[in-house]
Amino acid sequence: MSFRTYQCSDWCSLRTRVAPHLQNWLAPNRKKIRTGLTLLTSLLISVTESAIKHIARPGLNMRALTLTTATLAYNATYLGEAHASDFSKGGLYDAVQVGGFILPLNDVTKLSDEGILRFDDRIRRFTIDKRIENERQLKQRLKPITLQDARAVRDLYRAHRVTLPGPIAHVLTIPSGFGPAVFSNQPNHATVAASFGGVSRVPWTNDPDAGVALGLGLGNSFEKLGVAMMLSLNDLSDIRNQDRTSFGFQLSRYFFDGLSVGVGAENLFVKDTDGEVSPYLVASWAFDQPDTPFPLEGVFTVGVGGGRFAHKSPRDTAAGKGRSASKLFGGFSLQTSTSTSVIADWNGRNLSIGASWRVSESPIALKIGIRDLTNFSGDGPRLTGSVSVVLARF
Length: 394
Known about the structure:
Number of helices: 7
Number of domains: 2
Structural class: alpha+beta
Order of helices and strands: EHHHEEHEEHHEEEEEEEHEEEEE
Largest sheet: 12 strands, antiparallel, barrel
Shape: elongated
CATH superfamily of the largest domain: monomeric porin ompg
Helix content: 10-25%
Strand content: 25-35%
């Protein structure tokens, strides 16, 4: 969809020169006004034509002059939504940039007429109707309206009124329900990233271990599905052993108000590893409680799975700690600043705590934590950490 777009720093108004109380009267009477003005225009044309005939010089093109007069008069009285004729930058536009999103001019007019977008005279910009408290209410308000670009409206509300996780990690040892997602004003629809991580020691040994992974994210979970795929080398201590290479994937779908659900699997197609194939279903909810004595913003995650989420390792079983893990897993993160968060999660076998931060204005993110804090599995706490970097967006 291509538009000639009017861009401005404020949330632009289509009728900045019409007082609010007049707007309420004009909207339901627009057809009557247009009919009356059309009749008035015809009368003016007739009068003008008669006057011109009396003062016209020989050779004057009466037809062209009359047509020009009619066109000017009609454009001067037209109250439709075709052009943003009252914008200070001049010219004709068929789209407006509202809150960072490009909306067709007709859509902005319809949203204004329905009260979804409201022009605030005090701050001289559009605001979303405060009575719309969540995305489900927005969906109901949009149902009776036919829009050229409904996605841009949904994204506008989502970007400005819904809490969503940022580029900071909100899980340590479990998957998240959030997946690849893009707004309509973002040009990139796929991301390639790499990560390197390790532990201070493998359970029941004193040997450290590390792994590397290459990930690809594509699709859009806001509208349909987000797809994430990962190729992992699970053990750098035996880097030549291709049997320790594994594959993982996740399909994600965002629903509403910060809730996203994912289904996927880890450790697929691996032949030699201390892990096992682990399918799972997970949901994550991003929350924001700004009006509490201690404002909280973060992500809550809960899921169920098989494999590593359901079974303990053979060494755990041999040590008398049983065979079965909890199958249920979950996590809780709090964002402490725009670039840092603290995290706690249970992976079905044990508890971990840690922190994550993003290097300012860069594609690099770091995580560090302590795993196996309970006696449920393993032989004691151990350090874990990772660094990830976005390699490309396209």
